[in-house]
Design goal:
2 domains, alpha/beta, seven-stranded mixed sheet, about 375 residues, two-stranded antiparallel sheet, single chain, 15 strands, Aspartate Aminotransferase, domain 2, Aspartate Aminotransferase, domain 1
Amino acid sequence: MSPDPAPGGVIHLHRPTLGEEEARAIAEALESGQLVQGPRVRAFEAALEGLLGVPHAAAVSSGTAALHLAALALDLGPGDEVVVPDYTFPATAAAFARVGASPVLADVDPDTANVTPATVEAVLSPRTRALVAVHQFGLPAPVEPLRALCDARGIAFVEDAACALGAEVAAPGGPRRCGTFGRLACFSFHPRKAITTAEGGLVTTADPALDARIRLLRNHGMTPGGPTGFVFVEAGLNYRLTEVQAAMGLVQLGRLGGILAARRRLSLGYRERLEALLPDLGLPADPEGAPHTYQTFLVRLPPGVDRAGVMADLREAGVESSVGAHCLHRQPAYSRPDPGDAPFPGASSLGDRGLALPLHPGLGDADLDRVVSALAGALGR
């Protein structure tokens, strides 16, 4: 397993949970001689289909590739608008901009960091073709009302579940996993996520036609046939996951339950300490019926606090931190001329005050004590 931070050393924001099993699986994949389009990728896809309860799961090379393929499979392009959260990682919007569609930014609830039906409805237009709802930091977005809103208007509902592998939402027939509500859903296996394939992603759907299109596009638009053995029926891409990555992913999937349990235990430990020592700090929402998987533990600093100064103090104390996500309306690629912050109060609040604290299964109680003590000291200064 990944080593614990050394006493007094740097407490990292995140470290993937890796061990000898991954190394052996990777070695076996290398020894097999088949490094792409082999049995390990299909086994990984099948395992994820079983975990999520979806009929189709296509493994791809990254979470961004998954989003790009979703945009292509839905035939989005110039003249189409796609609603995305203002507060997210820019890949959520970039994948749709790259097909010529226009990302339209929706504000988020500052307590959950997710879009709401009200913030989405405020930016819909006759050109809206899709909504991409991010399960931000592993907290499920309000999928049922968002999907109902989309269905009533003929809009494609897409889940960006990059942070939400294993997250569940209460439903009449029992809990359902994030990634099963949209026409398409996209996952990431970046090292910051609960499980990793170093880089990697996944597209899930219940629609066999969309799945077939995703699989065609991820492999050069190539299908068997013709005098050379293959016919290129569409201008595709190389977005394949390798056998080496899939071998690693299969081992990681076996760790998922323990990883999520550890993240939740550590998050509860943070809550107890922070509520006692820093009651003015905003803590992550954890609503009943949609429990958080805590890909990130994001706190909100009190208004007016110099976040950059707090992060510098934490760094001096050997504690890594980050700003969480980004306000897209402040980024040159997505901003309007002189946009200001007025249309995005929720996102702007998180963009100014959000602070991600270290969270990964390698941490222990002493590490939590040290992080909280360092944060209290930084805020005191």
